[in-house]
Automatic annotation (TrEMBL):
Annotated ranges, domain Nucleoporin POM152 N-terminal transmembrane: 29-97
Organism: Acaulospora morrowiae
GO cellular component: nuclear pore transmembrane ring
Domain Nucleoporin POM152 first Ig-like: 168-273
Listed GO biological process terms: nuclear pore organization; protein import into nucleus
Alphabetized PANTHER family for the sequence: NUCLEOPORIN POM152
Record lineage: Eukaryota, Fungi, Fungi incertae sedis, Mucoromycota, Glomeromycotina
Molecular function via GO: structural constituent of nuclear pore
One Pfam family hit: TMD_POM152
Transmembrane segments: 34-67, 79-103
InterPro entries, sorted: Ig-like_POM152_1st, Pom152, TMD_POM152
Protein name (record): 483_t:CDS:1
Keywords for the protein's UniProt record, in alphabetical order: Membrane, Transmembrane, Transmembrane helix
Amino acid sequence: MATVRRVNARHHAPNGEQTPLIPVNICSAHQQRFLAVTIYGVLLALKAYTVILFYWCLLDALFFFGLYTLRIPWLQKSLWFWLLCFFVSCLINASLINPLWVYDVELRKHVYDVFSSSSLLIQQQYLRLRGEKVRAVSSEENIQIEDVRYNSSHIKGKHTVRLLPFASAKLNPDDERLCLQRNDKKKFIELPILFNRTYPYFITYSRVDFEAGAKTLHQFSSKDIEQHRIVDVIQDGVYVYIPINQPGAYRIEEASDEDEMGIKIYNRQEVIVYCPSAELVPKSDLSLCFDDVIEVDLVLE
């Protein structure tokens, strides 16, 4: 009498694929794929509820790492494949949250630089294949001078830097009201100039006469400053006081320090005039009695 034995059928994984982490007799392959799609739909719903880039990328990382770990049939890919999927998903997430993020991180510039460098390397390899000598800047190889001279692209590493003056000069920084005494023309007033972070070596200022309209230049050197002792030292600079005894419109034209470095000049103009005055001038004799009327003129200057 023949003996009959029952043999459980085993699921054989497709060629080149490993055995799934969850056996197919517990959960079939198509059920595992259906669950993967369902979980991805749930993740999309969670993304719509919370719009945070880091949160979205974290969900994608967990999902792709889970697919790599579970080894679901027909979804078994290498680790590099899932890393690439994660990178692409991060780009898509960033584009959905902020479509202008490419301009914010200057990605276009970096991509252009990469393609420019790649094209230069390809051109050098092409010249080598043709037998021409190529000299790169870093490897000291021969290059064609004409290719560099008339190259439309900029040479990497070359930058133009414009150094702005570190110090500054400001005429009458506190906006003081200054005027000259009309009766004493020999008396000077001090016009303040604030120099920040420097000590002036010479100062050139201009004066425009109100009547003639002529512009004259005056120089004030460091010797004049030391001779007249018209310096007030503060924490970040000095106050220099220019002696003025004539009315006009004053402006700083140029200034420099001992190192002959330029000083930034604020565009300010100070108008110096005579101080206004008022006087009562009697028209009649001042020998008057009580309750007498006196006539006077008010003279304003």
